[in-house]
Design goal:
mainly beta; eight-stranded antiparallel β-sheet; three-stranded antiparallel β-sheet
Length: 217
């Protein structure tokens, strides 16, 4: 079956294609939006990415422990996560999970709060607290993203030190093939309300994988 070429708007976006620690020295293969890529890591650690079919150089950057690539002409930088640059943050690369689904469906699931009580029982949600309260959406033209604000959902255990459930606030934002979420939750020894950013990036491929990283203290 012939794959329909991706739209230019999708090609011009940044996608994380691998964890930097997982890129071996020498040549390795990858796949983004239906295009096969060849990734080369030199002995000195320098990484280059080219299309396997044409040899054309692919835009790439490194950030947050991941290798990012764009098949088009990206207008901006990779997604900004200011918290990751704070000196007392520790970056934890969470790896990748293979999912037999389209990229947009993976992102849709990532942003869906209604499944929390049934899939992430007693962690992100719990019955009978199944209501998804009204929230608002907005298009942020400066970053070309859709964001949802005033998202609240009951979380039975927001942290290991939690002794009771709270209404946790989320602020998800995304492009069609990338999801981001800012979750307001407590840290050990601190009162409720401390911000801990949770971010995830999804890419569309034959077996799309959702990669996530959590900068935390």
């Amino acid at each position: 079956m012939t794959m329909k070429p991706a739209e230019k708007a999708a090609l011009d976006q940044w996608y994380c294609i691998d964890a930097l620690d997982d890129v071996p020295v020498g040549e390795s293969s990858n796949r983004l939006l239906g295009y096969d890529l060849k990734v080369t890591r030199a002995a000195d650690g320098v990484i280059s990415v080219v299309r396997a079919d044409t040899g054309a150089v692919v835009h790439m950057k490194m950030g947050y422990g991941y290798l990012w690539a764009s098949l088009g002409e990206p207008a901006g930088d990779i997604p900004s996560i200011p918290e990751a640059h704070e000196p007392d943050r520790r970056l934890v690369v969470c790896g990748a999970i293979s999912v037999k689904a389209s990229g947009p469906r993976v992102v849709e699931n990532f942003l869906d709060m209604a499944h929390f009580p049934f899939v992430h029982t007693d962690i992100l949600g719990a019955e009978p607290h199944t209501e998804v309260r009204h929230y608002t959406t907005e298009i942020r033209r400066d970053v070309d993203e859709v964001w949802a604000t005033n998202c609240e959902f009951f979380q039975p255990q927001a942290a290991l030190s939690a002794t009771e459930g709270i209404m946790t606030q989320y602020m998800p934002g995304h492009q069609p093939l990338r999801g981001d979420a800012l979750q307001d939750m407590p840290e050990r020894g601190e009162p409720l309300g401390r911000d801990l950013p949770l971010r995830a990036a999804a890419r569309s491929r034959a077996l799309p994988r959702a990669s996530g990283h959590v900068p935390h203290r």
